[in-house]
Specification:
With about 210 residues, this protein is α+β, with helices and mostly antiparallel strands. It is about 25% helix and about 35% strand. Strands 1, 2, 4, 6, 7 and 8 form a six-stranded antiparallel β-sheet that branches. The protein has a three-stranded antiparallel β-sheet with strand order 3-5-9, with no helix packed on it. A hairpin with a 4-residue loop joins β6 and β7.
Amino acid sequence: MGIIHLIDESKNGIFTTEDLKELKVYESGTFMDGYGDVSGVIIDATPGITGSINLDLTVSIVHADVMEQFRLSIWEKLTEEERKELEEKHSGNLKGSGFFTSVFGKFAGGGNYDHYRNSTRTFESDKTEKMDYFLQGVYNLEVTQHKITGKIDINPPSDFESRLKILFPLCKVVFKDGTTKKFISTNDLKSVDADTKEEKGSVKPDLNIVD
């Protein structure tokens, strides 16, 4: 299956208490949205032959239940019009990394829901009460270890052999003190060439994130 290295990304810098007070570490950082290699698995695929792999991975993420509690807390900070816009944009599915990216754009991207979509961009607080409340809330989200288990069916390209990687939708917030919050979706996975990163073939996941 491959070797998965879990790295503690929360302590990349050393600060004194006074430093942290002055910096207000939650006020700036980098937001990344897109696809990433979570499993570390490389598949040697035979043309035209559908295969499957079973996954049993341990990941450090913000769990969906924690995200839902956070959503409810920030929902009160939005206007009725903003809530309606988000509900329409996500067809009522107010969960997952896609929704979180939209909300992050609303609060920290100048009100543009798509500001951080499929990109890596920095952010900085505008010192307003609403944005400060949001960023501090994200900074304090609990990160815990969970397992991703289940099966992925793989349909490789039909014309040539390939070495494929499976990519997961994910978004990640890295604050300026190195504190990292990661969100992973187990839907809409992609298969890409392990060398060129070009999307090839297709995958059908049947995965669960469990405690």
